[in-house]
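Reminder to self: tokens first, then the designed residues, so the page reads top to bottom the way the pipeline ran.
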């Protein structure tokens, strides 16, 4: 299966602030891993009074690096793309120290209600204590000192995921929705594949020139890359349908074939993405299962 042209060439420069664009600094947290790549990117926007996007995880070294990047300049706003613990926890600490306004789509929540007996596999990764000062509507603009940032609702990776567009620059801080190094993990019930695809369509209606994501380096041709992501997801959907039609009944069987060339450490995440596709396919009647779609369910052609 062909993939988008992923770019994994990235120097995280842990502990240092590096320029990401005009009046934008990137500080990458040292939380490298199979799902976080080289770590979570925090961004400092502005010259005098600043905005911080995704302050990051509770990590003391990252806190010091972020504070060094800010220096003695005031921070008026903190923007949070979503409430996974590698992105949002330091927002509370930064707000307490600076008095900044915290802006996000809203509280952490699942994309749908949990089924009876279902456990959210990402519950431990969720920052359920996070509470923004402003739950920004899609298209809502927050203005600061020499900058304006527009909230773009992009559910899919999580129900409350948002990207943030730096008005007048063509730059979007895309969080975990679109990243240059890999596809986003869609894991029910935290996220939903149908929401993710709709969010990609929304981005395609825009004419942005650069995405600065939550992990890895910049996406330099956003519309081309987003179109490739859509194609990749549709091909993945067809691969799932193909395995079901060939007699695979369990997600573990599908993952073993579809992701045979993928790092085995990522097979758990891959199983959740297959579940996300199956949940969508069951909703459309293309696949059937007994009861609600689940990671251990059995699936048949619709």
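Designed residues (302 positions):
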């Amino acid at each position: 299966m062909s993939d988008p042209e992923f770019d994994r060439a990235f120097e995280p420069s842990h502990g240092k602030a590096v320029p990401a664009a005009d009046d934008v600094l990137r500080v990458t947290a040292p939380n490298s891993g199979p799902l976080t790549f080289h770590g979570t990117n925090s961004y400092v926007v502005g010259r005098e009074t600043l905005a911080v996007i995704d302050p990051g995880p509770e990590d003391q070294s990252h806190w010091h690096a972020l504070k060094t990047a800010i220096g003695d300049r005031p921070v008026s706003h903190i923007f949070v793309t979503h409430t996974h613990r590698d992105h949002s926890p330091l927002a509370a600490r930064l707000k307490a120290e600076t008095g900044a306004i915290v802006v996000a789509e809203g509280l952490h929540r699942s994309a749908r209600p949990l089924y009876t007996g279902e456990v959210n596999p990402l519950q431990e990764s969720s920052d359920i204590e996070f509470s923004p000062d402003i739950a920004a509507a899609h298209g809502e603009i927050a203005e600061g000192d020499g900058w304006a940032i527009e909230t773009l609702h992009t559910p899919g990776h999580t129900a409350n995921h948002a990207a943030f567009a730096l008005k007048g620059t063509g730059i979007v801080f895309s969080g975990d929705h679109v990243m240059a190094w890999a596809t986003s993990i869609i894991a029910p019930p935290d996220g939903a594949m149908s929401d993710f695809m709709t969010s990609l369509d929304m981005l395609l209606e825009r004419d942005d020139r650069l995405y600065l994501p939550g992990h890895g380096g910049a996406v330099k041709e956003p519309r081309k890359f987003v179109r490739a992501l859509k194609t990749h997801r549709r091909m993945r959907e067809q691969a799932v349908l193909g395995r079901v039609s060939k007699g695979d009944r369990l997600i573990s069987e599908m993952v073993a074939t579809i992701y045979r060339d993928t790092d085995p450490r990522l097979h758990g995440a891959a199983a959740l993405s297959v579940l996300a596709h199956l949940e969508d396919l069951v909703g459309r009647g293309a696949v059937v299962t007994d009861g609600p779609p689940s990671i251990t369910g059995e699936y048949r052609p619709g």
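The helical segments are 60-70, 90-98, 193-204, 222-245, 251-258, 267-283.
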